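Hey, sorry to bother you again with one of my protein questions. I've been puzzling over a protein and I'd love to understand its fold better. Take your time with it, there's no hurry, and the full record follows here:
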Amino acid sequence: MIIEMDTHMRHTTEFADTLSKEQRDCARDMMARQFAELLACSPDENLYWNGSTTDLMDLSHSVYMTEKLVDGQGRPSDFRSIVKRACDVLHVPVPSNPYSMAFNARNRKGVRQTSMFSRYCWLMYVRQSRRPLNEMVKRIKS
């Protein structure tokens, strides 16, 4: 019996790729601002990340690439410090290699999972959420 394999690559277009450059830039700026607000919170505020650690690393890397988060001396924050702060605030264990997780998240495009940025854009433009990151974080009352 010979089984024919389907070797055609199925490439799914990410939602963010269907948007104009201006829409993507607006979403990227808004995402960076909202993420900065999250990082400004205290771990005592009981905020918890709803998604996977890979999603958080993807989000952290997307915001890192915008260079909108700055340290106390006005320099763009480094990726490792962004990850450390995000994990502390959102009660997620810090991965041993966040760079690898971010890289793997970038390459997982397809049917099963789209990039965090694309999902953010979808929430922003299709569901018309004013604060898409709030849907990815929950606050637990103590």
